[in-house]
User: What shape does this take?
Amino acid sequence: MYVLGEGVEANALYEMGLERIGCWPCPATDVAEMEAVGDMHPELWARWRDALAGWGMSQEDISRGTWRWRRPGEGGVGPHHMKGLSYEVEGERVVGRVAMDFERAREMAKALGCTPTPAGEGIEFDGIVVREDGSFEFEAGDGGDRARKLGELYALSQRSLHCFGCGLCLGQCGQGAVEMTGGRIYIRDTCTSCRACHRRCPIVRYGAGGAGAGAGG
Ligand code: SF4
Ligand code: SF4
Assistant: This one.
C-alpha cells in the first residue's frame, strides 16, 4: 500500500495474487501461494516436488503439504524431521521403523499404558505395536491421527535414546512409581499411566520437538 500510495510502480507479480516475491520457494509463504506459482510455472513446481522426493519425503507429505511441518500433529512436525524414523502407508496400516533403545523404551512406555503384544515380541500402546528391532505398525486412520501416533512414538524413542538422568520425571509421580537405578528409569506397578512423568521429560518437551508432550492419558 505504501508503494502504491507513493505512486511507485509495483512488481507485477503482486497484481497476479502473490504476496512474497523473492526466492523460489519462499520458505515463509503459504502452500497455496507456492501452488499458484506452480500453476504459472509448472516446471518450477515439478523441480520442487522432485527435490522433496529426493530428500526422502513421501508422496503423501508432498501432496498434502505436510513436508513443511516441523513435528507431527497439531502445530507439529513432518516425519521427515524425525531423524531415525521412517514409515510407509501400506493399505490400511502404517508400517515403519524407528531407532530406539527398546529395553528402556519398554520400561518408559509403561507410563503410556503399554501392554506386551500377544506374541510377546514387543509392546503396544495407543494401538501402536513396536517390536524389539524398532519396527512398528498401526492402523492408518486419518492424517491427524497418524501424525499424532508418529509423534508419540518418536517422543518415546528419543526419551529411550537420550535420557540423561536429570530426574525431573521422578518428582512428577504422585504414586511414587518412577525410580532411577544406575541412571536408568524404571516404572513400578503402581503406575496409573497418567503420563505426567513422560510429558515433563525435557527430551519429550524439547528434544523431540514437543511431539508426544501433549498426549493425553
Ligand atoms: S507419573 Fe507416575 S503414575 Fe503417572 S505415568 Fe508416570 S509413573 Fe505412572
Ligand atoms: S525426565 Fe530426565 S531422568 Fe526422566 S526420562 Fe527424561 S531425561 Fe531421563
